């Protein structure tokens, strides 16, 4: 497919859901993804129910899996003081290995074409895009969606502001054999310089995923001693880590995770998911936002392709406005949390305060989550 109607750069959650939605509406879609499916990703793998009706509308058959239903949120301070609240909407646990692969299989069935390659450049000339791949192939098309995740070679190429700054955050994740962690609980447990999330996924394994400031991590230098000496300062994590058996040969990690402001449209490319902005994982909502933003973009693209009097400018304006309406405040909240986390004493104070007040914790959840999105 050398000139699809829509080309999507990146086949993670945002790219795959946008592709499926567009294909369901009869559009010709090409997804360019640099990695083969299935693959593991650094992610807490707790999905908010905000997106469940939409994913079902897209055609994902979750009944084929035994997904843990999560309705309870636990937060613990470094000293292990625990507070627990109900999650108003709740969510479910599923590995990215399975979720992305299911979306990929379904998208292929619905006619989406996949090319496994790296996009190296996107040019916008005379109301059309030229997209260059690492294999020197060049593809032209009318619409491009950017769904290339948190950090990509394309951010450098597009000279995006956030990529010029170093980010101090490191993410680490592994799956562990079932240790008896309750299926209905997602826990966030604080330790010096970060926190680790515990929740169950579809095969009964426990996902342990940490976000940590690089400066705190590097005092240990390797993941095993970071777990032992830093993460285990929280007694709940100490108990988990001393009994847990990893299913991965070694944990996955990603560095330079940026929560800085990004633009939702650059060079006429509509950005979706983390490419448009990543919310702090403490909010547990990045995947739902990625999927929701992909839906908003797909809706506008369909109108643009079908209505002669709806111009590119209209499409961009409308997407920008919808994006801000739905995500601006939540991302702002996430950035405040990040600022707090950069100051250990403030963060400990904040965690202790929240851990003493269910009311505050409920308010935090309310302010970082949205309402269910429908078709
Ligand atoms: C530590 C951590 C824990 C988290 N935990 C949770 C959680 O529990 N719940 C939750 O809802 N969210 C969580 N998130 C957030 C969530 O993981 C992201 O918001 C989500 O993955 C965004 O999906 P995406 O499609 O935007 O990006 P991705 O899933 O990263 O997809 C981007 C895709 O683009 C591809 N790509 C990149 N560049 C190119 C290129 N040039 N050419 C071709 N392909 C390219 C990549 O290979 C990748 O497949 C967490 C994030 C972190 C960092």
UniProtKB/TrEMBL annotation:
<dbReference type="InterPro" id="IPR002938">
    <property type="entry name" value="FAD-bd"/>
</dbReference>
<dbReference type="InterPro" id="IPR050407">
    <property type="entry name" value="Geranylgeranyl_reductase"/>
</dbReference>
<protein>
    <submittedName>
        <fullName>FAD-dependent oxidoreductase</fullName>
    </submittedName>
</protein>
<dbReference type="GO" id="GO:0071949">
    <property type="term" value="F:FAD binding"/>
</dbReference>
<dbReference type="InterPro" id="IPR036188">
    <property type="entry name" value="FAD/NAD-bd_sf"/>
</dbReference>
<feature type="domain" description="FAD-binding">
    <location>
        <begin position="5"/>
        <end position="297"/>
    </location>
</feature>
<dbReference type="Pfam" id="PF01494">
    <property type="entry name" value="FAD_binding_3"/>
</dbReference>
């Amino acid at each position: 497919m050398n000139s699809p109607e829509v080309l999507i750069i990146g086949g993670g959650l945002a790219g795959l859901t946008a592709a499926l939605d567009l294909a369901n509406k009869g559009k010709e879609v090409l997804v360019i993804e640099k990695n083969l499916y299935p693959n593991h990703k650094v992610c807490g793998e707790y999905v908010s129910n905000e997106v469940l009706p939409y994913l079902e509308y897209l055609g994902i058959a979750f009944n084929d899996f035994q997904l843990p239903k999560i309705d309870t949120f636990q937060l613990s301070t470094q000293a292990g003081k625990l507070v627990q609240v109900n999650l108003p909407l709740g969510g479910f646990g599923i590995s990215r290995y399975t979720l992305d692969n299911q979306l990929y299989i379904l998208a292929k069935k619905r006619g989406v074409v996949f090319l496994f390659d790296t996009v190296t450049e996107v040019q916008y000339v005379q109301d059309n895009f030229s997209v260059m791949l690492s294999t020197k192939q060049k593809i032209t098309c009318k619409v491009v969606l950017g769904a290339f995740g948190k950090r990509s070679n394309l951010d450098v190429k597009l000279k995006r502001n956030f990529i010029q700054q170093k980010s101090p955050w490191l993410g680490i994740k592994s799956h562990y054999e079932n240790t008896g962690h309750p299926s209905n609980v997602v826990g966030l447990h604080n330790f010096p310089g970060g926190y680790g999330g515990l929740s169950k996924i579809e095969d009964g394994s426990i996902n342990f995923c940490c976000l940590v400031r690089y400066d705190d991590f590097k005092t240990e230098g390797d993941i095993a001693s970071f777990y032992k000496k830093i993460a285990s300062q929280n007694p709940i994590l100490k108990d988990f880590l001393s009994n847990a058996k990893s299913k991965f040969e070694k944990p996955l990690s990603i560095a330079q995770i940026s929560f800085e402001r990004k633009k939702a449209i650059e060079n006429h490319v509509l950005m979706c998911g983390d490419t448009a902005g990543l919310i702090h994982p403490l909010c547990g909502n990045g995947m739902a936002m990625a999927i929701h933003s992909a839906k908003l973009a797909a809706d506008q693209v369909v109108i643009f392709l079908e209505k002669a009097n709806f111009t590119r400018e209209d499409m961009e304006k409308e997407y920008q406005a919808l994006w801000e309406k739905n995500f601006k405040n939540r991302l702002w909240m996430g950035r405040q949390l990040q600022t707090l986390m950069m100051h250990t004493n403030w963060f400990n104070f904040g965690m202790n305060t929240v851990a003493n007040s269910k009311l505050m914790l409920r308010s935090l959840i309310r302010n970082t989550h949205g309402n269910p999105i429908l078709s």
